[in-house]
Amino acid sequence: DAGTPGISDPGEELVRQCAAAGIEVTSLPGPAACVTALSMSGLPTRRFCFEAFLPSERSDKKERQRILEELKRETRTIILYEAPHHLLGTLRDLRETLGGDRPAALCRELTKKYESVLRATLEEAISVLEKEEIRGEWVIVLEGRHPEEIRREEEKAWEKMSLEEHMEYYVSQGQDRKEAMRSVAKDRGISRRDVYRQLL
To answer: What is the pTM of this model?
Structure first.
């Protein structure tokens, strides 16, 4: 009677069982909070990932942290669901992992009477919501990392490595020495011949 069954919903299991039993399943376009929030967020909509609810801090802290670490490098717009009593805790975890300056849109009670959108950085959103009584179901939309920012971070990491360590990094990733030399040269902006000479 609300939303799109099968999107972060027990309907997913019903569809799976129907498909396994050979029962035909079809779908008609309907309101899904993740797409509604994305379209009104003001954040990039071309590429996005939907994470639904993060694992609970209480039931699976390790898995929650693993997903947060993955999201740290996500370049697509990120969409999460959250319940009112967990919202601030999740926003604080996101701030700690992704940084307080990450642009976000927090959408509440979509398509209902008290629909609202808070467009702010994570830091600003936490500051606003700490002063309010939090009610309703929320969709958190976060801007992804800029690839250029990730590239700059990686370059800084290489600067701390010796040439031998840099080579070993690529060899440990499964590259042969020739490929590794090419990768190191590209990272450092030097020729493969220069890498070879310095390793002699």
So the answer is: 0.70
